[in-house]
Every structure is written in structure tokens, then in C-alpha cells.
Amino acid sequence: NAGVTQTPKFRVLKTGQSMTLLCAQDMNHEYMYWYRQDPGMGLRLIHYSVGEGTTAKGEVPDGYNVSRLKKQNFLLGLESAAPSQTSVYFCASSPFQQGPQPQHFGDGTRLSIL
Amino acid sequence: EDKVVQSPLSLVVHEGDTVTLNCSYEVTNFRSLLWYKQEKKAPTFLFMLTSSGIEKKSGRLSSILDKKELFSILNITATQTGDSAIYLCAVKDDKIIFGKGTRLHILP
After folding, report:
1. Residues 52-111 of A with CB under 8 A from B
2. Listed residue (A60, A63, A92, A57) closest to A77, CA to CA
């Protein structure tokens, strides 16, 4: 059981390039999240999804787009990468059950924008 | 504005000491408070707290929530070098909001 898998693990981009980060979960979770983590800043929510075909903005959505075409996948896109988007990106998922549930995290994607 | 504040931001203690990490919060529609431990990669789940005054315990770690005063503490007794990590507190309302974390370093 893989849990939450993020690809790629590392990537270096030039300013203005585009790329897509993939998050896949095999736990049949309804909720999925994308965070970025910067030194001294904790985890900040970029976008999230409460189900297939739905997405919503988090705390820092500007410069990112997301799609949830399949329940198991949540894609994070950077249309025109900027140095300020250099960060470690974490994907997480959680089930929809009565009452709150903890999140399961992927191992992260380290992204550097030159 | 919803926020989660952790203190201290960093802490260095000797092996065997007991530490207390703090998390205070202000959110509109509180549902739960979660503690995570982050070493080199992904945060790993420690505790989820929803009710005041009920201690959750796992080995040397324990946590409690005070919904009246809007805070939680995470205690680690008889610390070991393997406890060195960033400890994250998160509060769930309609979304999940994380604090900046406490970086804990245990000296041998």
C-alpha cells in the first residue's frame, strides 16, 4: 500500500517555464491538499479538493492551478515559474468520515526555480 | 484572520529532559487540533484532539487540548536524540491551518 506518492521528487526549472506536480493516493480518500513549506513558515495551503472534479483556493493560491479529474490524483501546475515559488511542496489526503480525520502526507517535491 | 501560533520556535535540551511545546489558535469553526512530527521528509501524524481536557498519550508523548483558552500542549518526557524534529500543530476548521512549527533538538 503506497499511501500518498508525489512525483517528481526533485526538479530545477528556469524562470518562466511551466511544470506539473503529480500527487497520487491509493487510499480512496475524498480530500486532497497541496502545501508549500518554506524555512520558518510552516506549511501553507495552496489549493485543496473535497472530491473529484472540485477544487478550492487555500492560503497562497496565486501562481498555481490544480485539477482533480480522477479521485486518486491531484495535480498542481505552475504556468510560469518564478523564483518565489522555490519551495518544498507536500501533497496530503484525508478520508471523508463523520468527524475530522488526520491527513496522510507524501514525501514532498523539492522545486528550485532559477 | 484564522491563525495558529506555536512556541517556542526552537528548543535545545539534553537527552532525558522533559519538554512542553505550545500551540494556541484562533479559528472560526474549530473541528480538531492535530500534532505532527516532521523529520527529514513528510510530517507524520501524532495526535488528533477534539475534546477539552482529555489527554492523548503515546509512549513518552502526550497532548491535551483546552478549547476554552484555545491552546494545546505536547509533552515529551525522557527525551531521546530520536525526538529531534520539527513539531507541527494544525487546526482544522473548513480547511487545515498549520503553525510555523517548533524545531526541537536533543543533545546527547
Report:
1. 58-59, 90, 99-108
2. A63
| pLDDT value at B93 more than 90 | no
Angle at A52 between CA A47 and CA A58, to 5 degrees: 10
> C-alpha angle with apex B15: B75 to B43, nearest 5 degrees?
50
Strand-pair category, A87-94 with A31-37: antiparallel
Which residue, among B55, B56, B54, B106, has the nearest Cα to B78 in the 3D structure? B106
Categorize the per-residue pLDDT at A42 as very low, low, confident or very high, splitting at 50, 70 and 90: confident
**A94 falls in which pLDDT band (50, 70, 90)?**
confident
Question: Between A45, A59, A105, which is nearest B43 by CB?
Answer: A105
Q: Do B99 and A42 touch (CB under 8 A)?
A: yes
- Residue A109: pLDDT band (50, 70, 90) is very high
Among all chains, which residue has been given the C-alpha cell 523529520? B39
B48 and A102: CB-CB below 8 Å? yes
The Cα A55–Cα A23 span in angstroms is: 14
- pLDDT digits over B8-63, tens only? 999 999 999 999 999 999 988 888 999 999 998 889 999 999 999 999 999 999 99
The closest alpha carbon to B104, from B71, B74, B64, belongs to B74
